[in-house]
Amino acid sequence: MIATADEFRTGIRGLDGTWPALPALWSYSSLRDAEECPRRWALSRATYPAIWDRPGYPPRPILPALLGDIVHRSLDLILRRLYEAGCASIADASAVDVLRALGGYSGLAERLIGEQMDSLQSNPRMADQVAGLRSALKARIPAIRQRVQALVARATLVPREPAGEAAADAVPASDRASLSAGSHPEVTLHAPELRMAGRADLITVGAGSCSIVDYKTGAPDGHHADQLRLYALIWARDIELNPEAMPATSLTLSYATHDERVEPLEPHALELLAQQLTDRIASTESELMLRPPPARPSPTTCRLCSVRQLCDDYWSSAAIDPASMPRGFGDCEGTIISQNGPRSWVIEVDSDRRSLLRTPTEDPGFRVGDRVRLLGAALARDDDSGDETITLTRTSEVFQLADRVY
Questions:
Q1: What is the pLDDT of residue 166?
Q2: Which of 227, 223, 197 is nearest to 213 (CA)?
Q3: For residues 182 and 204, what is the distance between their CA atoms, to the nearest angstrom?
Q4: What is the per-residue pLDDT across 165-203, written as a single tens digit (0 to 9) for each?
Q5: CB 54 within 8 A of CB 26
Q6: Beta bridge partners of 43
Q7: Rounded to two decimals, what is the model's pTM?
Q8: Distances (CA, A) of 326 to 249, 280, 319
Q9: Any idea which fold 175-273 has?
């Protein structure tokens, strides 16, 4: 890779870009992502004008992530509508009307699937995958409904205190005014002094108390408690929503099957966490300003990385080992030596290793002499001869290297 202060060349044809700026505010997930692999963070958020006019490299979301997003968006909408209708829980009589207006659990899930798939149509890496993903997601609507129902069933909403007549007539100067007593779904938290932001699923303010609930659509993970404690810190430092600096007195992780209580940090522990965040951000940003930022290839880090085709460090590391990929699939780089048939080619992966490469069409996007990187190809080996066969599937990707690999 050739990199300057602003631009870089990846060695992949048509995939040169401009480095991203550092964020004004970090989120928990983006900071973790940048710490895990600065190169991945930068390449994922860079600008690629030859591909599309949006910032960032076109993502390639996987089915579990899409399912989780649908569950979370369904939950957010239902809780917000329940709260706006004055419902304390799904057991309230008027909750039936709220759900009916949303189309019911299944109708809402189907609508959100449609919106999500429509948004992927303009993604150059996903357009030909939309029909299959749409069918796969629709087939999982019963499971989506079950997960959302389980989360909604345990949700408790506290109505906000009615505003006085004068307050009701007043136009708020900002949508980030101090939170009143009661429940507040989907709260965006800012702590500029820490350069951190977060989005709490549900904050309930009471007399001298504050609870934060974070809904999780997947399996429990040790990082979830860390994220929730970070929300508590940002809440304590958000001078607009929480001008009195009220601490979070209750923290809950809500999964589809159960709730987990997280012990709030004491004031001195919050101060320590704030200092740790300051140090982490400074260290991470110093790495992100290197050109190129350092890469940290590993099977865990690279397996689902959406920009690994751009990272020379990945292709020269042990992380490319097929054992790190889903069984039977892997990535490989090689030179197309000859054409063996309308849909078969000979590819030289190493100087002493040639394999048969099968393609789904007669126009695979490369020609003899091209050096290519193949992502997500099906790998097989003949038990008798030991010969390897590489098959490109409808979800595989092919990237042509420039005449010279940097």
A1: 39
A2: 227
A3: 5
A4: 433 443 333 468 899 999 999 999 999 999 999 999 999
A5: no
A6: none
A7: 0.90
A8: 43, 32, 13
A9: Lambda Exonuclease; Chain A (3.90.320)
In whole angstroms, give the CA distance from residue 317 to residue 319.
5
**Domain segments of the chain as ranges:** 2-51+282-288, 63-153, 175-273, 321-400
The pLDDT of residue 161: 61
- Enter the tokens of residue 260: 């987990």
Cβ atoms 352, 358 nearer than 8 A: no
Would you call 213 helix, strand, or coil by DSSP? Answer: strand
| Rounded CA separation 238/187 (Å) | 11
What is residue 319's predicted lDDT score, i.e. its pLDDT?
A: 82
3-state secondary structure (DSSP) of residue 319? helix
Cis-peptide, bond into residue 185, ω within 30° of zero: no
Residue range 321-400 in CATH 2.40.50.140: yes
Q: What six digits make up the tokens of 211?
A: 């609870």
Write the pLDDT tens digit of every residue in 273-319. Answer: 999 999 999 999 999 999 999 999 998 899 889 999 999 999 999 88
Describe the strand order of the beta sheet including 17-18 as a list of residue ranges: 2-3, 7-9, 17-18
Residue 198 is inside which H or E element, if any? Answer: strand 196-206
Q: Which residue has the tokens 């779904």?
A: 185
Counting Cβ atoms within 10 Å, is residue 176 exposed (0-12), middle (13-18) or buried (19+)?
middle
CA distance 259 to 275: 30
* pLDDT above 80: residue 385: no
Q: Is the pLDDT of residue 394 over 80?
A: yes
Which token pair is 379? 């790998």
DSSP element (H, E) containing 99: helix 95-102
Q: Output the six-digit token pair for 73.
A: 């968006």
Residue 254, pLDDT above cutoff 50: yes
E-assigned strand segments in 275-406: 329-341, 344-350, 353-358, 371-381, 388-391, 397-400
**Structural contact between residues 60 and 305, judged by C-beta atoms closer than 8 angstroms:** no
Residue 259 reports pLDDT greater than 50: yes
Comparing 67-76, 125-134, 385-394, the range with the smallest average pLDDT is 385-394
